[in-house]
Amino acid sequence: MSEKVTREELQKLDKHQLIAFILNNIVKKAGDEKPPACNATSPPGFGDIKLPAKPGAAPSPPLKCPPIPKTPPPVPGDACGDFSKKKRFIASPDQVVGEKRIFVKCERCDKTFIIDLPKKIVLSNPLEVVPVTILHHPEHALTVYLDQNFESRRDYVSELFTLK
What distance in Å separates the CA atoms of residue 106 and residue 88, rounded to the nearest whole number? Predict the structure, then answer.
């Protein structure tokens, strides 16, 4: 194309040709002229940052950062001991006496049952949440998961099937 381009010639160009034409003319003008001198000061804390004068210029030296540690730092609280694992006292069945009253609701029968459960079932078990199955109907049973405070963590109804 010639130096002087008419409006009609620009209108005939497609989108990609027009963008290329504009970029070529901007690069030519930027290469011919020197950028005006700038007396502005950089904001506080940004005085050390140097930007390249032109695109394609040599990159600035890498920033000096501390090296990344190969092992992660210790988690706070590890020095004092691991409190995430709950240490609990498991009593022998001979030491535990008495009963604990729990209330269980059967969703199938829509009844609430009051059950006197022996404490040794829960307190002498090594599990933190103890499953206890209660047979109250010939066709289904309740399984209740009790924690060490005899609070229900989960319960469900299961069908009973007898082998003949």
Answer: 31
